[in-house]
Fold this sequence. Notes:
151 residues, 6-stranded mixed β-sheet, globular, 8 strands, two-stranded parallel sheet, single chain, alpha/beta
Amino acid sequence: MLVIRRDLVDAMVAHARRDHPDEACGVLPGPEGSDRPERAIEMINAERSPTFYRFDSTEQLQVWRQMDSNDEEPVVIYHSHTATEAYPSRTDVAYASEPNAHYVLVSTRDPETYELRSYRILDGEVTEEPVEVVESYMFAHTGSDEVPDRD
């Protein structure tokens, strides 16, 4: 399951809307091993295409080096589909190279709403996963009896 803050969802959707009709792409890094995205990095779609995305290789190298120096990893790799549902294409699957990442797709085919779905892609196998949008990570996945005392 992908647990993600609302502000990060809003950032991905806003980026997808701004770049429409071209596909938008980016990464949400978080602390290594945390599985918790903390910030959004919008990246350039080197293809500038409504049907395909590819990170600019120079920009990708810079972003990945920055994540390494911050002890971060790409928790979410996202891109948009502008005319189809939010499901990975064969090309998306072929380019999925981060085994621990959540691959999030945002469909902007409907101008009034959006569709957001998350997948794990490993060795060409696509598995959809639930997405839980939270306002804060502080109490995500805690039951009411697990809220800390205020003493």
